[in-house]
Amino acid sequence: MNERIKNKLALLPDQPGCYLMKDKNGTIIYVGKAKILKNRVRSYFTGSHNTKTERLVSEIEDFEYIVTESNIEALLLEINLIKKNDPKYNIMLKDDKTYPFLKITNEKYPRLVITRKVLKDKALYFGPYPDVGAANETKKILDRLFPLRKCKPSQTKEPCLYYHLGQCLCPYY
What we know:
Blueprint: H1 3-11, E1 17-22, E2 28-34, H2 37-43, H3 51-59, E3 62-67, H4 71-85, E4 101-104, E5 112-115, E6 124-126, H5 132-145, H6 161-164
Pfam families: GIY-YIG
Organism: Clostridium perfringens
Keywords: Cytoplasm, DNA damage, DNA excision, DNA repair, Excision nuclease
């Protein structure tokens, strides 16, 4: 570990964010996210690791970090940074798996749903998320913050349960 890395490690904050590991040419070789940047980034330079991580650490000559307001923001930023920089050690988002997206439907009364297909249907798509758990966590938060429709048209014209909980505008009522 070089002196520049030692100095930067001492300055890492106790906050969530993303970190970008760079090689000797300044090329970003890995992007990660952390609930606590100080703990996560320092962990690369202490203790034993698997072969892949040891190879990564042996190439790190510098790093940068970006502080975020929340873990969700860090997750979204991480995905975008990986897509933008295509780091050689980030293989999870490069393979041909279908990753989950959040979709705001293009209906008269929109719904927020999780999908693995991005269609040309004039809906709004957000993602991809690295796994369905992260998509569900984000959806749960957004469902609490924004009372988008969760119900189907009612034959009885009665409001849905989510309407009574203040989580659905229930346009059919």
